[in-house]
Design a protein that fits this description.
225 residues, mainly alpha, 2 domains, two-stranded antiparallel ribbon, elongated
């Protein structure tokens, strides 16, 4: 069902509607000050104010608190069979924002679980697909960790070679300086190459895996129908 507005509204609802829609902190303050009265409202009014409160928490970056209350909207939308609110799929949007809150709190496993569920709902949603890729890129992988560790080791080795060259080779063994200089350059470039290649492969693997997952879900939905 869609969300329907009543012709009569309570005083607390009318006071709330006087607040500008982008005054997020004022919305939060009002809701928390009048929470008991809001909880006693008719469902339509309560649900609209709850959504505004949850969205305001998300907009100001209060992600931990957002996660504590966003499930209330999701559960109510399921229990009351509310499919749309103000022209949007409230269940889908709230799940997406929940994933975003987990992502911003560096809770990548939780975020990716939700994003994969959203892809199951709509495997054509590029925004969700790209968000899943972004989360996986930031979470990293064994390949990326190995590449970074190897490059750091080679950069440290380059620093050791520089010290060896400056303190020992140049003053006392000038004839070996060209070879030492060459080894220093090769070591540094190898470290840089491993770092770049590791990051590139990390991104390519994620791109392939997420696209494959989306395509597999899409095929399964088509076969179901």
């Amino acid at each position: 069902m869609s969300y329907f507005q009543s012709t009569y509204h309570s005083r607390v609802y009318r006071d709330f509607k006087d607040i500008e829609s982008n005054a997020h902190r004022q919305i939060i303050r009002f809701f928390e000050q009048h929470e008991k009265r809001i909880n006693g409202l008719e469902f339509e009014e309560y649900f609209e104010l709850l959504i505004a409160y949850v969205n305001a928490l998300f907009e100001i970056g209060s992600y931990q608190k957002h996660l504590q209350v966003v499930d209330m909207v999701i559960e109510n939308s399921i229990e009351m069979n509310i499919q749309t609110f103000e022209g949007e799929d409230v269940y889908y949007i709230m799940l997406f924002k929940k994933a975003a809150s987990h992502f911003n709190l560096y809770q990548h496993n939780e975020a990716e679980h939700i994003l994969k569920e959203l892809i199951k709902i709509n495997p054509q949603d590029k925004e969700v697909i790209n968000f899943l890729k972004r989360s996986r890129r930031r979470r990293g992988s064994r390949l990326l960790s190995w590449a970074r560790a190897s490059s750091i080791l080679l950069f440290l080795l380059t620093a050791v070679i520089i010290c060896f060259e400056v303190l020992l080779v140049r003053p006392f063994y000038e004839m070996y300086a060209p070879k030492v200089e060459t080894s220093r350059i090769i070591t540094f470039l190898l470290g840089l190459l491993i770092l770049i290649l590791g990051d590139f492969l990390h991104r390519v693997i994620i791109e392939i895996k997420v696209n494959q997952y989306s395509e597999r879900v899409s095929r399964n939905k088509k076969n179901t129908y």
